[in-house]
Amino acid sequence: MLLASLSLLAVLAAGFAGYAHTRTEDLRDMPAARNAALTDTARTSEVKGTVGQAVDAVFSYDHTDPRRTDNAADTYLTGKAVGQHREMLARVRAQGERQKLVLTTTVTQSGVEVIDGDRARVLVFADQSNTSTAKGGSATQAAAMFAVDAVQRGGSWRIANIDTFNR
Question: pTM for the whole thing?
Answer without folding.
Answer: 0.77
